[in-house]
Amino acid sequence: MKNRIEEIRKSKGIKQEDFAKTMGVSRQTISSLENGRYNPSIFLAYKIARYFKMTIEEVFIFDEEDLNKR
Amino acid sequence: MKNKRLIVGIIGIALGILCQILYFTGTRDTFWSAMGGGLIGAGAIHLYLGIKYNKNANYRENYDTETKDERNRYISMKAWSWSGYLFIFISAAAVVGFKLTGYDSLSQFSSYALCLLLAIYCISYFVLRRKY
After folding, report:
1. Has residue B1 got a pLDDT over 80?
2. pLDDT tens digit string along B26-78?
3. Backbone φ, ψ for residue B6 (5° rounding)
4. Higher model confidence: residue A66 or residue B15?
């Protein structure tokens, strides 16, 4: 699933490491999320969206193709 | 985690020393001496890491993040899943391979290991299906 984490994080001037610390995950997890290699749990997705003061749909982009791949 | 590692370490060392005593008093064979050595070694590592966790705040923070990290847990679960599948294929190959080469008892042992793993999987699946 595609997401806008990197774009939003950079626009707010937050370092990957600091963001990871705030979210309570490792920096590698943030990196994997941003590269689209790993899809977060609903809890982490909610936490990220809430941190950016956005909805989950605004941060994570739902694609029909992703649904077909499952 | 706070004191769990310390306790596990102390128990490991104590059991290891007990095994060594049993060996040196002549009541048990070298197997128990080797087991004791292993337990003492593993216990010492646990004890060292437990002390480090309690004293080093930076290590504690990194350790907690790594263990609670959901991606790490996901990877760990995937690794267990792969291990299970690989074990089944390796055991199945071993059953046939040992039988063909005339090692009947090893072939039988491999088939028991395979059956045991499949039985554990079925029980786990049944329990988890009821839970979720």
Report:
1. no
2. 888 889 999 999 999 999 999 999 999 999 999 998 898 888 999 999 999 99
3. -65, -45
4. B15
Let me know: does B10 contact B47? Beta carbons within 8 Å.
yes
CA nearest to A8, candidates A28, A26, A30, A27: A30
Encode burial over A23-51: b for 16+ CB neighbours within 10 A, e otherwise: bebbbbbbebbbeeebebeeebbebbbeb
Is B70 part of the contact surface with chain A (CB cutoff 8 Å)? Answer: yes
Question: What does the DSSP assignment read for B11-60?
Answer: HHHHHHHHHHHHHHTTSS-HHHHHHHHHHHHHHHHHHHHHHHHHH-HHHH
pLDDT at A4 over 70: yes
Dist. CA A51–CA B44, nearest whole Å: 42
**Chain A: residue whose CA lies nearest to B69:** A25
Which residues sit opposite A2 in a β-bridge?
A61
pLDDT tens digits along B91-131: 999 999 999 999 999 999 999 999 999 999 999 999 999 99
Chain A residues within 8 angstroms (CB to CB) of chain B: 20-21, 24-26, 28-29, 32, 38, 40-41, 43-44
CB B71 to CB A24 under 8 A?
Answer: no
What is the maximum span of chain B, computed from C-alpha positions, in angstroms?
58
DSSP state of A3: E
Bridge partners (DSSP) listed for residue A60: A3
